Amino acid sequence: MVRDGEPFACLTCYDATTARWLERAGVHVLLVGDTAAEVILGFDRTVDMPLDIAVALTAAVKRGAPRTMVMADMPFMSYQADDAEAIRNAGRFITEGRADVVKIEADASYIGLVEKMTRAGIPVCAHVGSRPQLAGLQGGYGGAGRTAKEAATIVDDAVALEQAGAVMLLVEAVPPTVTDAILKATTAPLIGIGAGNAPHGQVLVLQDLLGMTDAPPRFAPAVARLGEAIQSAGEEWVRRVAARSVSGPGAEAKAPPRRVGGEDALV
Questions:
Q1: Which residues are 31's β-sheet partners?
Q2: Residue pair 54/7 in contact by the 8 Å Cβ criterion
Q3: Where are the domains of the chain?
Q4: pTM of the full predicted structure?
Q5: From start to end of 68-154, where are the E strands?
Q6: 213-267: per-residue pLDDT in tens?
Q7: Looking at the annotation, which residues are catalytic?
Q8: At the topology level of CATH, where does 8-209 sit?
């Protein structure tokens, strides 16, 4: 698609059922992001994403969308401490998680790791620009590349990581001028998020797109109001239960009792 000049769409996804529908929608790449820590597990930071759960969610998404490229987001401290451990963890995403590519937040200091992962046969997407796993050092989430020095460093990081073997790049929350500079200096497919319209692909957190988050980023306008629809459906269910009208016509006569907890336990 990049060679043909055709933009590709990417969304985060964390379960098989949603993955099935997004594959039917024609979404090209599904990212099992560490944002699951926030939107699935209820933490207020992405760094709280457990590795084992991330691997399991990745496998679920691939089972739901077997024909779609699935990218696994390596959680905080699953690749930073030791290269050998990082390669083993990345390998788990490829084998147990059935991922097609793994993503790491990186700068030029990760060149050696990317080279080792590539040598091991692990496709890597290098995430540059704003890196949420560094939020603790930066006093929170924010943009990157706002000064000439920062911008030049991000471009240099992208070039170095591609030369080390990264098959894809992702740039987050940078001015469009930085994105343009990366595109001119690299050839790998570039995914953007909050980085202007120029990247080859674009990604958003699915819950932001569907209107399920209370405070989405400015660069993530909702295209649906699914949160409100879920709330409305829940309210309707509460009303039906209160009115003792939960079954359709004739449903009670047709449905046999369901056994749970033992031979004589009927519900």
A1: 12, 71
A2: no
A3: 8-209
A4: 0.90
A5: 69-73, 101-105, 124-129
A6: 998 888 888 999 999 999 999 999 999 999 999 987 665 555 555 655 555 544 4
A7: 172
A8: TIM Barrel (3.20.20)
